Amino acid sequence: MPLVSLNEVLGKASNEGYAVGAFNCNNMEIVQAIAGAAEEEKAPVIIQASQGAIRYAGLQYIVGLVNLAAHSVSVPVVLHLDHGTSFEQAVQCIRSGFSSVMIDGSQYPLEENIALTKKVVEVAHAVGVTVEGELGRIGGTEDDISVSEAEAFFTDPAEARYFVEQTGVDALAISIGTAHGRYKGAPRLDFARLKEIREIVPCPIVLHGSSGVADEDIRKAAQLGVSKFNIDTNIREKFVGAIREYLPAHPDEIDPRNVLKPAREAATAIIREKIRLFGSSNKA
Ligand code: G3H
Ligand code: 13P
Ligand code: ZN
């Protein structure tokens, strides 16, 4: 199928009470793993590219790989920019063929975040591309901050509604206690805040930092209205873990295909597991 936008997968998800997985890709094997897992699970899927992915693979390679993957499966695939850093980058991605972009203005004061996000929305919507904005700060696990300090960065529900009304974003990433990367301790999610945000914010809600969140918390967050869960770290762990396991057992191996095949299989398996957890199997 040709690429679709976020609206084509998240609208149905929020109406029917399940969530769609947004998986980060960096190379061909991971793109194949995401598309293959979605096809096997008959699930809609979001393939996203981070700043690091764009630096590593190159924008055009990502667009080429994901387009090919989308056309070779029968389920809806979104190509989404993850944590877009500027208006210029969002426009480059739109022009290169992304069907959706995130503009992350969360480090700016509210009105600056609104102005930047609104500008991206105007351009994106003119060509049918969807936009995810972010309000509140999602930590990196390297940020050694206490829970009370972290709470100061959590998304304020009233501000979230104002942000969505002012910008017209199609999805909103919120901060309720998750962080990127590997967690040092178990993350504690502020479900009361999520519920409050869901009740007053009209667009689909996105949870970043979903790797390492307990399955029952993911299920609860989906029930409370999260429609898009971002997963990168769990794929990295499984992909590199499989290579780490393969190489000592095959010290003479020089064929990268033999090294990367089990990595791709391990990535496919974890992505299928997450798709089932999010409830999007058989929803394509
Ligand atoms: O949101 C961030 C991603 O999980 C990782 O980003 O590919 O730029 O390291 P990166
Ligand atoms: P994880 O590091 O928890 O996989 O989160 C990824 C993410 O939020 C990408 O935007
Ligand atoms: Zn993120």
State the major sheet: 8 strands, parallel, barrel
Helicity, as a percent range: 40-55%
Alpha-beta content class: alpha/beta
CATH classification class? Alpha Beta
Beta fraction: 15-25%
Question: Count the strands?
Answer: 10
Reported by name, the CATH topology is: TIM Barrel
State the shape. globular
Question: Low-confidence segments, ≥5 residues, pLDDT <50?
Answer: none
Count of helical stretches: 12
CATH homologous superfamily designation: Aldolase class I
Which strand order spans the largest sheet, edge to edge or round the barrel?
1-2-3-4-5-7-9-10
Q: Averaging pLDDT over every residue, what do you get?
A: 96
Report the C-alpha radius of gyration, rounded. Answer: 18 Å
Hetero ligands: glyceraldehyde-3-phosphate, 1,3-dihydroxyacetonephosphate, zinc ion
CATH architecture: Alpha-Beta Barrel
Number of domains: 1
| Order of secondary-structure elements | HEHEHHEHEHEEHHEEHEHEHH
Task: Describe the model.
With 284 residues, the protein is α/β, with parallel strands linked by helices. The chain has one domain (7-247, 257-278): TIM Barrel (Alpha-Beta Barrel), CATH 3.20.20.70. 52% of the residues lie in helices and 16% in strands. It has helices at residues 6-16, 28-41, 51-57, 59-71, 87-96, 110-126, 147-151, 157-167, 191-200, 215-223, 233-249, 256-278, and strands at 20-24, 45-49, 77-84, 100-103, 130-135, 139-140, 171-174, 179-180, 205-207, 226-231. Strands 1-2-3-4-5-7-9-10 form an eight-stranded parallel β-barrel, surrounded by ten helices. It has a two-stranded parallel sheet with strand order 6-8. Helix 3 crosses helix 4 (59-71), helix 5 runs parallel beside helix 6 and helix 8 (157-167) packs parallel to helix 9 (191-200). It is globular and about 60 Å long. The chain starts with 5 loop residues before the first helix and ends in a 6-residue tail after the last helix. 48% of the residues are buried. The mean pLDDT is 96. 1,3-dihydroxyacetonephosphate is lined by residues 24, 82-83, 180-181, 208-211, 230-234.
